[in-house]
Design a protein that fits this description.
single chain; 215 residues; flat
């Protein structure tokens, strides 16, 4: 596989990776009251940057040192994503207080941190995939970098698409905002609980021999 093919595959898989259900649901909880297309794209970029930094750091170490991630560690990282989705969901379900601003100033740390948590959870799976196809550590690192760029681009597309109806509708969507927040929050909590159940029950996180299928 030549460099161009590796770059193309890495970028396309990065785009595909951005639209995983847990990724989309997580950023949706941030975008529920967002009616600025530029800010929506910035949220997607920040998530992608956080994801790519964590992926490159953890995945790069796995590739460089040929590390084997213990199943319990992999499951625990994925459980962190489940807990984060549940917390994000409950935050969206919380009723707005009188002192809350309906459109608060964007805190860049939030989407960045969410991306980092997702990146850490997915780093082992991506690194293992790379190790099975690319023998050169240098080329593998390049693949991770291109994959990260694709993920950033993909999440910007996702957040842009999610924000478009609100941007077009403008103030007319205000009356539906509570319903949108509730739907996003409920989806985040339910997905988080389902992921946690799969990790604890099917994966046997607390069993003597846990079963982990990196994905």
């Amino acid at each position: 596989m030549n460099a161009l093919a590796i770059a193309a595959v890495g970028f396309l898989l990065g785009l595909r990776h951005a639209v995983d259900p847990d990724h989309v649901v997580a950023v949706t909880t941030i975008l529920t009251s967002e009616r600025s297309f530029r800010r929506a794209l910035w949220i997607g970029a920040l998530w992608g940057i956080g994801h790519s930094l964590a992926l490159f750091a953890a995945g790069g170490a796995i590739i460089a040192f040929r590390l084997v991630v213990p199943p319990r560690v992999g499951l625990t990282l994925e459980l962190g994503v489940a807990f984060m989705l549940i917390l994000l969901g409950f935050r969206s379900l919380r009723p707005l207080q009188q002192h809350d601003h309906p459109h608060p100033k964007l805190d860049p740390r939030r989407p960045l941190l969410i991306g980092i948590v997702h990146g850490l959870a997915g780093s082992a799976a991506v690194a293992l995939l790379v190790l099975t196809t690319i023998r050169s550590s240098l080329w593998a690192a390049g693949y991770l970098a291109v994959f990260g760029v694709g993920t950033i681009a993909g999440m910007m597309v996702v957040t842009g698409v999610l924000a478009t109806p609100a941007v077009i509708a403008g103030e007319r969507i205000v009356r539906f905002e509570r319903g949108i927040r509730f739907a996003a929050g409920a989806a985040s909590v339910i997905l988080g609980l389902l992921i946690a159940r799969g990790i604890i029950v099917a994966g046997g996180l607390f069993n003597e021999v846990p079963l982990w299928n990196p994905k």
